[in-house]
TrEMBL record:
UniProt keyword annotation of Hydrolase present: yes
Taxonomic lineage: Bacteria, Pseudomonadati, Pseudomonadota, Alphaproteobacteria, Hyphomicrobiales
Keywords on record: Hydrolase, Protease
Name under which the protein is recorded: ATP-dependent Clp protease adapter protein ClpS
HAMAP family attached to this UniProt entry: ClpS
Pfam families: ClpS
Entry's Gene Ontology molecular function annotations: peptidase activity
Gene field: clpS3
GO biological process: protein catabolic process; proteolysis
SUPFAM superfamilies: ClpS-like
Organism in which the protein naturally occurs: Rhizobium favelukesii
Similarity comment text for this entry: Belongs to the ClpS family.
Length: 103
C-alpha cells in the first residue's frame, strides 16, 4: 500500500515456468540373428503396434540399420526397452533397443 492509500499492483504478471518433460526416442537396431517375425511380435506386444506398422518399423531397421519406434517420456521409454530386451534375452536373441534423449 502506497501513502495515498492506493494499493499498487506489480504490472508484470510472473508466469510460472513449467518445463515440459524431456522426450526420449526408443531406437530399434538391426542384427543378423533375430528373426523378423520375432521383432514384429515384440513391437506388437510391447509397443502395441499393429502387424502392418510393426512390419514397417522392423523392415526400416532391417534395411537402414535402425528405426525410431516411439517418442515418449524417459520412464516409459526405459521400461519398454527393458521389457523388449528381456523378452529377446529369454528367447536367446541379441535384439537391441535403446532410449535416447531427443535433441
Ligand atoms: N536382420 C534380421 C534378419 O534378417 C531381422 C531384424 C530386423 C532384426 C530388425 C533386428 O531390429 C531388427 N533376420
Amino acid at each position: 500500500m502506497s501513502d495515498n492509500g492506493i494499493a499498487l499492483k506489480p504490472k508484470t504478471k510472473s508466469k510460472p515456468k513449467l518445463d515440459r518433460p524431456k522426450l526420449y526416442k526408443v531406437i530399434l537396431f538391426n542384427d543378423d540373428y533375430t528373426p523378423r517375425e520375432f521383432v514384429v511380435m515384440i513391437l506388437k506386444a510391447v509397443f502395441r503396434m499393429s502387424e502392418e506398422v510393426g512390419y514397417r518399423v522392423m523392415m526400416t531397421a532391417h534395411k537402414l540399420g535402425s528405426s525410431v519406434v516411439v517418442v515418449c517420456t524417459k520412464d516409459i521409454a526405459e521400461t519398454k526397452v527393458k521389457e523388449a530386451m528381456d523378452y529377446a534375452k529369454q528367447a536367446g536373441f541379441p535384439l537391441m533397443l535403446t532410449a535416447e534423449p531427443e535433441e
